[in-house]
Amino acid sequence: YTTGLSLKPGDRLVVIDFAAHPAAELTFDHHSTCLSFWEEGTPIPKGIFDTSIPSCPRLLATYCDFDIEEEVLAGCDRVDGAIYPNLAAALDLTDPFVAMEYCLGVDVTDVVRREVILTLAKNKLDPHSVLDQSSWRARLALVKCELEEQRQFWRDPELVWQSSGRATVIDARLAPHNASKFRFLPFEIPRVAERPYLVTVRGSKSPDLVNIGVGQNPFLSTYYEQAKTSGALIDVGALLKSLGQGGGRREVGSLTTHASELQGTLGRILEAVEGS
Asked: Minimal CA–CA distance to 139: which of 175, 176, 111, 100?
């Protein structure tokens, strides 16, 4: 990606929240697979790699002394680290940080994204400085409609392919909206809510490829505390990296594979989850 930016000698490029690049002078990351492209055995690049940090702003505030209000950091932790007390909180569009995350999922141009960044920078990262604009109020109204359409989609029982002891597999390829955008809605399904891992089959730009998302159930914290104590906790990002073109954090990740290999890949994922 970075080689396609046509940088000139002396230009400085800053990439946030992306795997370490061999040409990087300094790297900050909180993903468990942030060094996935680094050759094993070579010196780790300069920077900070702390997988205990739930969000990028928290990482920068902790290690770079960025002056960010705790309310903002807590809001970023909620949406980036999926730190929600319950499902209702994860879908609460009155929470400005939740609303901002969903609204950024609406199709917007790079110009709009740039304006969002500059607006937040000028207003101490206050999400209201963006959400109170008329165009973003309209986006939020659209998000509410899309969320309800997605909720109706998940009411089809045939979309739940299988449920094992620890995981449920669901098919989101024909969902009206991006499955990652409304990733918490499937937890309204009882068979999904009862299990610690959710495996989501998603479409890809290529008909020959399929994307598989794997994530912890963020509303079963007690299970993960016990699994961590017993040494049975899965590093989702590391698991998906070991299976091919995948990766992520300890809690969540994704993998792209050929459609013809879908069932085999799902079998390996479930085997790893059940064997933990």
From this structure: 100
Question: What CA–CA distance (Å, rounded) separates 60 from 66?
Answer: 6
Give CA torsion, residues 215, 182, 31, 219, to 10 deg.
-50
d(CA 18, CA 120): 21
Give whole-number Cα distances, 75 to 36, 56, 67, 90, 126, in Å.
Answer: 28, 12, 15, 12, 10
Strand ordering across the sheet containing 160-163: 160-163, 167-171, 197-202, 209-216, 252-258, 245-248
Report the predicted TM-score, pTM, of the whole model to 2 decimal places. Answer: 0.78
Tokens 């049975």 label which residue?
A: 232
CB-based contact 96:130 (threshold 8 Å) = no
197-202 vs 209-216, strand pairing mode: antiparallel
pLDDT digits (tens, 9 = 90+) for 181-224: 899 999 999 999 999 999 999 998 888 999 999 999 989 888 88
Q: Quick one: pLDDT at residue 26? A: 77
